[in-house]
Amino acid sequence: MTTDQMLLFGILIVLFGMLVWGRFRYDLVAFVALLATVILGLIDAGQAFEGFGHPAVVIIALVLIVSRGLMNSGAVELIARFVIRPDRSMSSHIGIMAVAGAALSAVINNVAALALLMSLDMDAARKAKRAVSLTLMPLSFGTILGGMITLIGTPPNIVIAQYRDNALGAPFAMFDFAPVGLAVAIVGIAYVTLIGWRLIPERPDAVSLEGDAGLYVAEARIKEGSKSVGMTVGELYPLANESDVTILGLVRQGKRLPGFSRSREIRKTDFLVLEGDPKQIEAFMGAAELDTVGSDKHGGLIGRSMSLVEAIVPEDARVVGRNTLGMRLVQRHGVTLLGVSRQGKRFRERVRGLTIKPGDVLLLIGPDDNIAAASAWLGVLPLENRRLEVLQRTKAMAALASFAGAIALTVAGLVPLTIALGLCVVAYLALGIIGGRDFYELIEWKVIVLLACLIPVGQALEETGGSQLIANLIVSQTDGFPAWAVLMALMVITMTLSDFLNNVATALIAAPIAVSIANSLQVSPDPFLMGVAVAASCAFLTPIGHKNNTIIMGPGNYQFGDYWRMGLLLEIIVIAVAVPVIMLVWQF
Asked: Do 159 and 532 meet the contact criterion of CB atoms below 8 Å apart?
């Protein structure tokens, strides 16, 4: 072992130890490791930051933006109408949700897919009065399995594809991962649906720590062309029940009509008085084709990228003792007061005409750029983590068409994936599906920095002969074994690392080792690269190996040791299914 190899292995051991420990941010740990390799002369200073321009880094950033665009347009929400029914059996519900999660994860980032479906799953569990711990973990595992089907479904696939381009002169294509990924996903989902969820301990639902403001009383306008026009208020009750919204009454010509107005026929420009939480109100407004006052000012619910923000009213706020109608909030700031939460109390005054009191929580709607200025002017304090994107449902087909066009351009070989996704992002910006600040806020910079810093470190491992050294060790320990057994050993090692390390880091380190093993065995490297892609994505034993498992830990009230109960057998199943399929599709 040379001096450079010993130094680099020392850095990697410390890096792995710090990542497993988790005491410090993984992007900062990777950055320090990169600087250490430069200072020790293992990487040329002029090449230290070339990772930030690597195609894999660009693709991951663009995939995150495109995923948000598909969600903002309501394209993804269409699935929810078919997957959520609280009267289904446990296995049926888990199977449908896992399939939906896998399908979404194949075309958008699997973290984004989980973020969307997790709230739906929790709503279904609440309605069915069952513990959410029984369904969240199968959903998380389903989204992880689905991400393996396409190039853009999960970051390890992108990393492996680009490494193949550098090592062999051509990357894996968009659907090269599909045969293996689809087979693993089908068998894996069947397992979590029929067996896996039964191995999970049933735990009481976690108490929300978000500081829920309670239910809001809100007003939504019947816009021109709405399907609600001509219906009675009572005929909207089933749709309201689906969204967990209560219709309290009807406002006509500026006056609240008596009672609940159940038998009243709805007219254009009427207002429905609603009670619910922000997400439920927004969902019902979309389903019933309602709008909000001030649409001529800020484009309504189908205009620019807009948000719902909850803000609490302190005692010294400018708005205390006044109403937003008199303060001309819409005209001055292009922001509308959609609803008010007053300690769970209902009121009959018009929302915009209500005299605001200290302790009220306001539900503001408007373009992202206007909300902060309006909140500061009113003197209210936006609640942390209580911002909700308003879906622009009329643009769903345009969003899907743009995304499909980008994929078609890539599959046809007309443009690289980076350019195709870039064109899709430009289309979303032009359509107003995402705002200018979304372009930067939606990028998960910690992952970007981690990947950009570890790419040069991985290259140094290969250039110093470290990858070949590890490959020789694996080959020597499996001497006399057939190639498929060596592949299985590599996948087991990679999968174990992925349970404790970030999957991107695992893929970056394992990819050059896979090629070195193939070269030592004098076989095609493709089966080994595909095996690494599958194994790096399959982190089912711990909550730290994959972000989706981390996300569900709090809401599901899981403990660290809960994951292996369902995940251990799943990892064995993945190996048992993936190796034969890889041998069949990617022959040695």
From this structure: no
